[in-house]
Amino acid sequence: MPVILKAENINVYYGAIHAVKDVSFHVNEGEIVTLIGANGAGKSTILKTVSGLLGSRGGSISFLGENISSVPPHKIVESGLAQVPEGRAVFLQMTVEENLEMGGFTRPKSGGRTRLERVFTRFPRLKERRCQLAGTLSGGEQQMLAIGRALMSEPRLLMMDEPSMGLAPILVEQIFEIINDLNRSGSTILLVEQNAQMALSIADRGYVLENGEIIKSAPADKLLEDDDVKKAYLGG
Amino acid sequence: MTFVLYLINGVSLGSIYAIIALGYTMVYGIAKMLNFAHGDVIMVGAYVCFFAMSSFRLPPIIVVPLAAGVCAALGALIEAFAYRPLRQAGSLAVLITAIGVSYLLQNTALLLWKSNPRVFTSIVGTDVIKISGLPITYVTIITILTCVAIMAGLTIFTGKTKMGKAMRACAEDKNAASLMGINVNVTISLTFAIGSSLAAIAGALLCSAYPTLSPATGSMPGIKAFTAAVFGGIGSIPGAMLGGVLLGIIEIFAKAYISTQLSDAIVFAVLIIVLLVKPAGLLGKHAHEKV
């Protein structure tokens, strides 16, 4: 399994605050890798740095063998990396279909219909609501839309920032099923989650973040059995 | 009958305000800033028309697109040099910069073209036609038609084209838009360019209807159009249109039936009343955000 994403010694600052400290990790093709940790541990910051929204001081990020550390976000998307942003961030004043269209912004117009139909097959609910404004959707539907939108760019790597946030337990399960399903059909996924139990149960490997540092990295099943992880993140 | 005539003239003046207001509202929508230099772009556009017609004897069909092109480039330049470096700065810094750019444009115009007013030759002649007995100038008709065409064009652009939709996406969430692969800087530049080219068209129409041109020509219509944009709900394209047309009608009626001197005061009084009742403007909406 070739390495698809490799981050080495990334350091991110918010003003004087050192939010991410010397973080290194990698994702292999076909894997689900999860970054777990408490609120404020630096998980989202890491994703934003990989997608180019934030800059790293020193260190390097390579995606498909290319150094993307100083590439602007819109170019990174073009190279095959998509993100489901924190809090979904769907375009509320645009219709479901327009949102999906925006997801495929970097792709040629010719395959647009096929890509759209593929997303609609995966999420029939979105097809029913294709002409509705995204702002009128429920939280779960918005999350599906955010995932569908990211899939519209046919990414080689899909990064997801807290997809379960703010959803009812039944929807959380549904979302994780979708993630698992995406992975089985060939997507490589980097998943950031506070819900460590769920994330580790579907992931291949996991990294544990604390105060901006990676304190543990291991196969997911090992982390599920790890005493420290159990105590801190799995409720005993 | 005079009532109908006043109404038509009001709609025509309002159409000019509306075309200018579109520039304010589009830029506000995407860059969340009030571009107070927008009014002076009208003046630059009118001067380009003036010199193209008087010195180079170009026909209006070339003059107006030329002025629109020059102002589009000017708008994009202003954004790149004055506003882009302040993208992360507070809104007060941006506002002051915009006022500075406004002074820069006016004083450069003063330096280059002097303060004496020029007599602007109408781009569509000064002919008057009678429509069921009412004397209506060509300028009036062309202004209203241009406004309708611009509105239709913008509606199609923002609703149907990829770039127009990208513009709406950027207006809503710039980070999310860039995660879609949209180049936010290019989209903002394009918005300034479109708004400024509309200002140039408005300048040509304005000076055709009121044929004196000086470096201060753009400031009062600029302020009124800004008022129109707020009146209609800033950020909303149909709002700018509605606000502009209503403002024009109110102004002409106030001049005709109440007092010429008080007309501007009445216009602004109406604005205050509307904002007291509907703080977001007539068609403005407060976005409901789900967390």
Can you offer a commentary on this structure?
The complex is a heterodimer of chains A (236) and B (291). Chain A has a domain at 1-80 and 157-163 and 189-236: P-loop containing nucleotide triphosphate hydrolases (Rossmann fold, 3-Layer(aba) Sandwich), CATH 3.40.50. The longest helix of chain A is centred in the last third of the chain and has 16 residues, at 169-184. Chain A is globular and about 45 Å long. Chain A has 236 residues and is α/β, with parallel strands linked by helices. In chain A, helix 3 packs parallel to helix 6 (139-151). The model of chain A has no long low-confidence stretch (mean pLDDT 93). Chain A has ten helices and ten strands. Chain A has helices spanning 43-50, 73-78, 96-103, 112-122, 124-128, 139-151, 169-184, 196-202, 220-225, 227-233; strands spanning 3-14, 17-28, 32-37, 60-63, 66-67, 81-84, 157-161, 188-193, 205-210, 213-219. With 291 residues, chain B is mainly alpha-helical. Chain B has one domain (16-219). In chain B, 73% of the residues lie in helices and 4% in strands. Chain B has helices at 2-31, 38-54, 60-83, 91-113, 138-160, 162-172, 174-179, 184-209, 219-232, 237-258, 263-277, and strands spanning 118-119, 128-131, 134-137, 212-213. Chain B has a two-stranded antiparallel sheet with strand order 1-4. A two-stranded antiparallel sheet of chain B has the order 2-3. In chain B, helix 2 runs antiparallel to helix 3 (60-83), helix 2 (38-54) packs across helix 8 and helix 3 crosses helix 8. The longest helix of chain B is centred in the N-terminal third of the chain and has 30 residues, at 2-31. The interface between A and B is medium-sized, with 31 and 22 residues.
